[in-house]
Each structure stands twice: as structure tokens, then as C-alpha cells.
Design a protein that fits this description.
With 175 residues, the protein is an alpha+beta fold. It has a single domain (3-174), classed as q2cbj1_9rhob like domain (Jelly Rolls), CATH 2.60.120. It contains 2 helices and 11 strands, in the order E-H-E-E-H-E-E-E-E-E-E-E-E. The chain has helices spanning 11-24, 59-69, and strands at 3-5, 31-32, 51-54, 78-86, 92-95, 107-112, 125-129, 133-137, 144-147, 152-155, 166-174. Strand 7 and strand 8 (133-137) form a beta hairpin. The chain is globular and about 40 Å long. The relative contact order is 0.26.
């Protein structure tokens, strides 16, 4: 089941992470999805890369924050945290975020941090949940979504009409 929590982060955290993006412009601060961060083929069909900034300095904050919101996170003591910058033409194909055999289960989460977003710009979270069926989520400001993999999901392509990149915080929690 895909869960949603509106108004998730404190404003100062949103501001800090947005400022980190602004400060990174024009610098060699980004990874891109096809450098091995994503599995092979996940960006197939994308016309633009997704830029990625690691946010390791926020790992402890997010572990504590999620534990305070939902008991499902009680045993998860590590978070890998990234800022994803989605320019027009970027998307990610359907995938399930499940781990390899022998690894602990993980929880997956996304937080949308654009203060405004237009329906016509794309960037919707699409998913096929065994309990909820095929659905989508609009990237509302400060909306947190989370689920236990495997749930097939992807992001629709950002259109050329998008006036700025879609920003999201991507988290993977492990025990």
C-alpha cells in the first residue's frame, strides 16, 4: 500500500535542501541517473538525465522524523537520502525497488519539494499497488509518500512546458 503524509517536513528543512540545490547550480555537484545509481534500463525512453545530489548529512534527521510519524519505521535505523532534480524530458520506467535475495527488506519514500507545480508539466508518481490498483499521485509541495517494496511504480515524463525542474527527496530505509 502506498501511504501519503501531507505537510511532512518543517519549513527550515525544506528551505535548507532547496538552497543546497540552488548553491549547486553551475558546479560539479551532481551525479546522474545513468552513472549507475539507478538499475539498468530504468531511464530507457527518458530524453534527459535526472540529476542527483546525495543528502547524507540528513540521514539521522530523516530516520528520527519517520520513526516519529509511523511505527512501521521503528526497526529501520539507516536511510540513504538523495535530492532528485527532474528536468523536462526526464522520467523513470516502472520498477519495484525490491532488494536482492538475502538482503533485509527496505522502505521507500519520496517527498515533493516544489512549492508550486502545474498539472501540464508531468512528473506524476504512477504506481500499481496490489491492494489499491493502478493510481497516480500529483507532486504536491511537502507531500511525503512511502511504501514497502515490491510495488511497481514510475514517474511520468516531465513535459517541455515545465518551467523549472521537479525536485524530490528520495529515501531508502534499511534495518
Amino acid at each position: 500500500m502506498v501511504n501519503q503524509v501531507p505537510n511532512f517536513l518543517e519549513q527550515h528543512i525544506l528551505d535548507e535542501i532547496t538552497q543546497k540545490f540552488e548553491d549547486s547550480k553551475g558546479k560539479a555537484a551532481f551525479e546522474i541517473n545513468n552513472m549507475g545509481r539507478w538499475g539498468q534500463g530504468l531511464d530507457r525512453g527518458s530524453f534527459a538525465p535526472v540529476f542527483i545530489i546525495p543528502l547524507s548529512e540528513y540521514e539521522e534527521y530523516f530516520v528520527a522524523k519517520y520513526k516519529s510519524v509511523d511505527p512501521a519505521f521503528a526497526d529501520y535505523n539507516h536511510a540513504t537520502v538523495f535530492l532528485h532534480i527532474w528536468p523536462p524530458g526526464s522520467q523513470i520506467n516502472f520498477h519495484h525497488d525490491d532488494v536482492s535475495e538475502g538482503q533485509d527488506k527496505r522502505l521507500t519514500s519520496t517527498i515533493y519539494i516544489n512549492p508550486t507545480w502545474n498539472w501540464n508539466w508531468g512528473g506524476l508518481f504512477l504506481y500499481d499497488d496490489p491492494e489499491q490498483g493502478q493510481r497516480w499521485i500529483f507532486p504536491h509541495y511537502n507531500l511525503m509518500t512511502w511504501f514497502v517494496p515490491p510495488i511497481y511504480h514510475g514517474t511520468s515524463m516531465l513535459t517541455l512546458a515545465a518551467e523549472y525542474p521537479r525536485l524530490s527527496i528520495q529515501l531508502f530505509f534499511t534495518k
